[in-house]
Amino acid sequence: MNCPFCEREMEFGYIQNRDGVYWMRSKRAISTIMPPKRDREVVSLNDGKVSYFAGGSAEAWLCRKCKKVVVDYAPKPVPDEDE
Ligand SMILES: [Zn+2]
């Protein structure tokens, strides 16, 4: 993906958090954050998937020059267990 600001190639990676990755309009205490199904102002950036060992992660593209991160929060296909 190219940076929408400077148009250089971006680096692919992940944003991780222990209990899911969410966007919301205003900051709030972590203990008050409910999953999007219960709180319509919360948007899950990783489809609400959280694993005990890996936490929640969202795919993200980074531009070090512009200091920007782009996140695609569309649901991703579930990888096959055998792969
Ligand atoms: Zn850039």
Strand tally, please? 5
- Main sheet: strands, sense, barrel: 3 strands, antiparallel
Succession of helices and strands: EEEEE
Ions, cofactors, ligands: which are bound? zinc ion
Count the helices. How many? 0
In order across it, which strands form the biggest sheet?
A: 1-4-5
Q: How many separate domains?
A: 1
Task: Describe this structure in a few short sentences.
This protein has 83 residues and is mainly β. Helix content is 0%, strand content 28%.
Can you tell me about this structure?
With 83 residues, the chain is an all-beta fold. The protein has one domain (11-71). It has strands at 11-17, 22-23, 43-44, 56-63, 68-71. The strands form two sheets. Strands 1-4-5 form a three-stranded antiparallel beta sheet, with no helix packed on it. A two-stranded antiparallel ribbon has the order 2-3. Strand 4 (56-63) and strand 5 (68-71) form a beta hairpin. The radius of gyration is 14 Å and the shape is globular. The model has no long low-confidence stretch (mean pLDDT 85). The structure holds zinc ion (ZN).
Helix and strand arrangement:
Elements (H helix, E strand, L loop, with lengths): L10 E7 L4 E2 L19 E2 L11 E8 L4 E4 L12
Antiparallel strand pairs: 1-4, 2-3, 4-5
This protein binds zinc ion (ZN).
Zinc ion binds next to loops.
What are the main properties of this structure?
two-stranded antiparallel sheet, binds zinc ion, three-stranded antiparallel beta sheet, 5 strands, 83 residues, mainly beta
